[in-house]
């Protein structure tokens, strides 16, 4: 048996089509949603991701606002840039591309984003709102995973879900999303302190791996027919000396699982689509 692939790229394209219609409706009311990005330094990977976000904006009709600072930018310069975006009425939401250079205080930077303009949904106020079940921009990767599973009719209600990884951007908020009444899944949040990881993943209907450990999830750790979601994305150097990205799911898992969200082509494109969704929703609220 080979698993059915849940295509994040195609699903993200569908979502972008829907967003294009919503953006047109906003334009008829004289409102153009705007997404801002703040890039500090010239890391090629981060530049590529930021360029991708602006390409996505152009595709759906969202206005792009780009702020670029040198790698040696001071904390003050960054703070000033965020204050400008917070005050800019054309900017409905923005993100600070991570990781930031080591001399900058990432937590301070994230906290300086106006929570109402937090397109990544990572501000402590918005994570707190998620805990309390209040309306808030949702973190893009967890939201993208839930949306992809929903659109591919993977039942969540009553499902046993093992989430591997307790990071603040994926694992922890994903546990919160999946246990909302609207999803009603039962979540086991596994991490480096988990004693018998395989026992938890084998007991799960859905296994979501966001550990950043290439090949961590092997075939013996998955019950036949389970749904597996690969969130891992680690840059490795192949035997040919070339760099490439690899996920957390070992290739043999595809022979055991019923459905797999692969990397590439799964969670990454959905994360990008959810960023656009957060900005359009913000603009629709006026
Ligand atoms: N402020 C943020 N910084 C970072 C985030 C984020 O969500 N917000 N995530 C990553 C980088 N990132 C977006 O910024 C991102 C990474 C990967 C993908 C993606 O689509 N990946 C492809 C595979 C790799 C590739 O082709 O480049 C895939 O999964 O198919 C999208 C966005 C860190 N920083």
From TrEMBL:
Residues 139-285 form the Tetrahydrofolate dehydrogenase/cyclohydrolase NAD(P)-binding domain. Gene3D superfamilies: Leucine Dehydrogenase, chain A, domain 1 (3.40.50.10860), NAD(P)-binding Rossmann-like Domain (3.40.50.720). This is Bifunctional protein FolD. Homodimer. It comes from the Bacteria. The keyword NADP applies. Belongs to the tetrahydrofolate dehydrogenase/cyclohydrolase family. Residues 6-120 form the Tetrahydrofolate dehydrogenase/cyclohydrolase catalytic domain. InterPro entries: Aminoacid_DH-like_N_sf, NAD(P)-bd_dom_sf, THF_DH/CycHdrlase, THF_DH/CycHdrlase_cat_dom, THF_DH/CycHdrlase_NAD-bd_dom. GO terms for cellular component: cytosol. NADP(+) binds at residues 165-167, 233. The gene is folD. One of its GO terms (molecular function) is methenyltetrahydrofolate cyclohydrolase activity. Catalyzes the oxidation of 5,10-methylenetetrahydrofolate to 5,10-methenyltetrahydrofolate and then the hydrolysis of 5,10-methenyltetrahydrofolate to 10-formyltetrahydrofolate. PANTHER family: C-1-TETRAHYDROFOLATE SYNTHASE, CYTOPLASMIC, C-1-TETRAHYDROFOLATE SYNTHASE, CYTOPLASMIC-RELATED. It comes from Micromonospora craniellae. NCBIfam families: PRK14193.1. Its EC number is 1.5.1.5, 3.5.4.9. It catalyses: (6R)-5,10-methenyltetrahydrofolate + H2O = (6R)-10-formyltetrahydrofolate + H(+); (6R)-5,10-methylene-5,6,7,8-tetrahydrofolate + NADP(+) = (6R)-5,10-methenyltetrahydrofolate + NADPH. GO terms for biological process: L-histidine biosynthetic process; methionine biosynthetic process; purine nucleotide biosynthetic process; tetrahydrofolate interconversion. Pathway: One-carbon metabolism; tetrahydrofolate interconversion. Keywords: Amino-acid biosynthesis, Histidine biosynthesis, Hydrolase, Methionine biosynthesis, Multifunctional enzyme, NADP, One-carbon metabolism, Oxidoreductase, Purine biosynthesis. SUPFAM superfamilies: Aminoacid dehydrogenase-like, N-terminal domain (SSF53223), NAD(P)-binding Rossmann-fold domains (SSF51735). The lineage of its organism: Bacteria, Bacillati, Actinomycetota, Actinomycetes, Micromonosporales.
